Amino acid sequence: MWKDKYKIGVAEIDQQHEELFRRVSTFIQTVRKSGTWEEKAENVKETISFMQAYVVDHFNDEESYLEKIGYPDLKKHKEAHEEFKRAVQEYVQRFEQEGYPEEVALEFGGKLMTWLIMHVASMDQKIGRYVVKQGGDSR
């Protein structure tokens, strides 16, 4: 699902975005493929664990970079990150309470991909444009 048009021109952030897309794509493919749900549930647990840790690191890196360049929409960007972390945490709680049902895993995968596309293709693209406008090279 990763596309080069999602790049913002900041190597570290672009690499992290690409990794997020790769993980979410693999997760969705795993949940949809044939096989027993017990086998797939392990991947659900791994993906949740990854998302909880990796998005925190990624968001911290991205927010630090935005602070460094004086990005004017930093507050709004942080709020979007917090909203995403809350959503992931809500799914963690649902999985723990409901025992990792397949339909919730499919819903989770769809939400992750939708959020990534919307955030990276919209909000994060503004970062690249801001860097270019400030005289930097975002590409």
UniProtKB/TrEMBL annotation:
It comes from the Bacteria. One of its GO terms (molecular function) is metal ion binding. Residues 9-128 form the Hemerythrin-like domain. It holds the Pfam family Hemerythrin. Keywords: Iron, Metal-binding. PROSITE patterns: HEMERYTHRINS. NCBIfam families: bact_hemeryth (NF033749), hemeryth_dom (TIGR02481). PANTHER family: BACTERIOHEMERYTHRIN (PTHR37164). Belongs to the hemerythrin family. This is Bacteriohemerythrin. It comes from Heliorestis convoluta.
